[in-house]
Each structure stands twice: as C-alpha cells, then as structure tokens.
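Intended use. Records like the one below are meant for learning the mapping from a protein sequence to its folded structure. Do not use them to infer anything beyond what is encoded.
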Amino acid sequence: MFWEKKLAQWVDEVKSRANLPARLVLWDGQQHDFGTFATPQVTLKVNTAAALPLLLEPSLDNLGEAYVKGKIDIEGKLTDIINISYSLARNTVTSAGKLARVRRYFNHSKTSDKKAIQYHYDVSNEFYKLWLDENMVYSCAYFEDGDEDIDTAQLKKIDHILTKIQVQPGHRLLDIGCGWGALVLRAAQKFGAQCVGVTLSQNQFDLATQRVRDAGLEGQIEIRLQDYRDLDGRFDRITSVGMFEHVGRKNLPGYFQKMHDLLEDHGIAMNHGITSSDFDSGETALGGGEFIDRYVFPDGELPHISLALESMQRGGLEPIDVESLRRHYAHTLNIWADRFEAHAEEARKLVDDEKFRIWRVYLAGCAYAFENDDVSIFQVVCRRAGQSATTLPWSRRYMYDKK
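Structure written out for the chain above:
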C-alpha cells in the first residue's frame, strides 16, 4: 500500500510537469499513464516490486539499473525510450534530478586500467562486428557530406586525421589505443608510414595482429599489448583516438607529457577524444555518467575541453588546431544503435541478457547525449611547444587535400 501510494503520487507529479506519451504497467496489471495520449509510444513494464525504489528516484543510472537487471522491460522505438527516460529524469520532483554531481577520481594504475579496458573491449570481437563498420573502427566517424554510409565515413575519419597531421611516407607513427588496427593499416597502406599500435585489450591485439599479417604488412606495422606509459623511443607522428577518456582527469598532464616525450622535435600529434560539457563535475547529466561508469566504462573520466587544452599545455604541447565533431558522433551512434537493433537476435546469442541490455541503452543514450550537448568530442592537433610561428600553416586548406 505504501509503494502504491508513492507510485501514484510520483506519476501525478511527473504528469503535472510533462505530458509524456508513456505508460507504466505493474506486475499485477495496474496501469498508470504519464500523459493524456490514447496510445503511448513507450510502455514501462514493472516486473517486480523491487523496481519501485529505483523508479521513484528516476535518475538515468537508476532507470538503467532497473532495465539491465531485468526489473523492468521497456517496449517502444529505441529513440522514444531514450527520450522518455531523459524526460522522466529531468521532470521528476524528487531529488534524483536535482542531485549535485560530484567530481569522481579513480586510481588509474596500470593494473586497474588494463582490467577496465579488457572489461569493455574484450566482450567479443564477433559482438562488435555485428554493429561496427567493416574495418571495426570504434570511434566517431566523419561524414564529410552527411550522406556517407558508416564504412565510407570511418575511412574518411582516418584519412582526415592522417591528413591533418601531415603523415608522409617513411614517417614513424604511433597510435595510442589502436583498437583493431584500422588506423595503422590505413597509415601504412595509403600514406606509407612505419607504424606502432598499442592496446591493452587482448582481443584487439589478437585481431589487429592477424589483420597486419593478412595484409602482408609485418615489416611496416607492429602491434603491441602494452600500456602507453611503458613506451619509449621517438615518433614523427602520434595519434590517440578514443583513448584519453580512460586516462583520468588528474593524469592528463602526465599523459600529454608522455606524448611530448615520445614526439620528435618537429613532430605532430593528434588527440581525438570525448569531453564533458559540464566544466565543474566532468559528468554527464542526470546520472548518465554513473550508469556508464558502473556498467560500460569502469573508471572512465571525461574532462571539459578547457581542462584537456590546459593539460596539454602543462604537458609541454601546443594546441594548433581544434575541431568539434559532435554532430558526427551523434550520427555515428544513431547508426550503431540502429545496426545493433537490426542484429539484436544475433547479439543475444553472443552475450548474456544483462550485457545485451547494457549495450542497447548505452548506444542510444550516448546518441542523445551528443545530440543535446551533454557531451562533445574534439580533435586537437598539437606539437611540442616553443616553436617558431613561421612553421605553422597559414590556413586549414591542407587538411582537405585529397590524396
């Protein structure tokens, strides 16, 4: 009786703030509508009374936990589900939508980082193949014209990066966080670079090594299962794509200092990474960051772009070009989410139900976050600080030269 009364009050309070095309169906058949719509777009089915405490504090992490643990099921189009989830979190009158976001820091030892990376990336290569592009590029694509398919857009992204940092034949290129090897393969095959790629994921290392072997590029590309902090030597070009989110905000100056130390005196580097739009907490809104940390990216931390640039300069690097790709990542994630839905039955055979649910809401939720400026993504080209201004290009025209 207590929970039923609380639930009815919560539904009325949400309805008074927002007319939502959603319906709540309890395990005993009771129904509550969040709006005046005859036919709801989204139906939340509550499978157990154990879900009610989470629903009555409907932050994104609570709603996400209820879903991934099977306490609730949600019917409807995935984009509608995400929109309704954000609306419930935003319009609740309980404390959930008003809690101050607390800046979190993590240890980021070599051992903990390796464990966190392998948790996320070693789900299975077959799982990622279902919804990524043919080259398995797991980062923001680049839609130069806006109508490219995902395979074309991911190759354009890699070419955009390699052109920005002016890779030339014979350059020694380091890719920190090389994934399944797409960038180093492209850099070797199209740009003539000598490449080293490092990853902490065993699955990525195995497949990237096999791809290099299959391409006959063992003499041009070396894949290492290695922490970036253990690297030595010097490189003409350095790329880091979708990796610095795992470094930790407190560690960013040291990360960029390491990049500085690995870069040749007149070398060029690029950091391509996700940033938070909240400069105080560095968290995504309404509990989304807590959900991602708990279920998707353990120990992940998103800096504000201002902190990223400050840390870069503290590490001895000069930022010389900054480009936002937020629209591109929103579109990339929508494509990934659609492909995931299209291959849902195949995905269920590769992972357990909880993992399936995590990834389903994660991809669509991230698309919403990028669309609505909760998070962004920037490509920052940099070089060792203190060089003459005459060594900088006059314009960005060279970035769009076609090879």
